[in-house]
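Quick check before the chapter quiz. The format below is the same one you will see on the exam, so make sure you can read both the input and the output lines.
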Amino acid sequence: MQTGLSAWALPESQRRTFDELTDDLYLTAGDDRSKRSAFWTMLTLSALIATAGVLSDSTATVIGAMIIAPLSTPIMGIALALAKRESGAVWRSGRFVLLGGLLVVAIGWAFGWALPGTLDLLGNSQITGRTSPGLLDLVAAVATGFAGAIALARRDVSAVLPGVAIAISLVPPLAVVGVCLGNGARGLALGALVLFLSNLVALVLAGTLVYAVLEYRDGAATTGGSRRKTYLVLAIITMVVAVPLLANTAATLYLEILTDRVEKVADDWVSQQPGASVTDVEASGTDLVVQVQTPTDVPPVDRLVADLAGVVPAGIPVVVTTELGDRIEAGTVGES
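Here is the expected output.
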């Protein structure tokens, strides 16, 4: 009998057996033909809904796609297979995840390719919110993965699964990958792909740990060496995904600090012009863009560039834009 945290999170009276989990999570077990039919039908519909929601920038539509998406089933199947050390089942479940992911990306790409002239990728919150993941996204995904794994392993908390489906977000990032690829925005597509991979790894990691606890309870064959090997592989995969997320988080924080400094300098710069104000400062590619609202002429831009010397690294181009759509190439910081 188990005690401690595992017994508290997975009380013995509510634990589902490995056989029950296998029947639910392996698409090749039991009535496999019906399971595959349901999986591909619902995944296709979910991909269409998610892509439409992304393109229309509709949060409600995207949430609907999350709820009906079945992609978490084979992902949790991978976790269960790792806990049971069934390499064949790992590859079978992994194949469904890979092919399913390619299907969603293909649908997103088709829409993105067909509607390239009407899309403002950076002005769409459904896209920008999924193309720059950070370390906190991985933390949230791991917590959600544990919630999903425990909900599947217990008979009394299955009602939380729709919430888990919304929180983990699998199909929408893949739809964004396809839409961005269809528009030639490979950098944005890569960011959305990293978000999907981090969510996938989080589900597998959390699921494997939870189902490993069940393994001891069900008396499955287990050795310390094989357990350590499984956990080592998961740790390596987690680190591979966490490194770019950590780097992106650091870059985002750095840009926030940088733009805050620029905004303070720019505020002082426009103060010489009555009624003028700085409405926004953002990094756009390699440029620092200062958006200004003024009733008259823009103050001399060379002074702004000179004031930024020592505040931001040298070599950064500065651009000033106005509410009327004027774009002024102010110069490069540190160049006389």
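If your answer matched, good. The chain has two domains: 5-222, 254-332.
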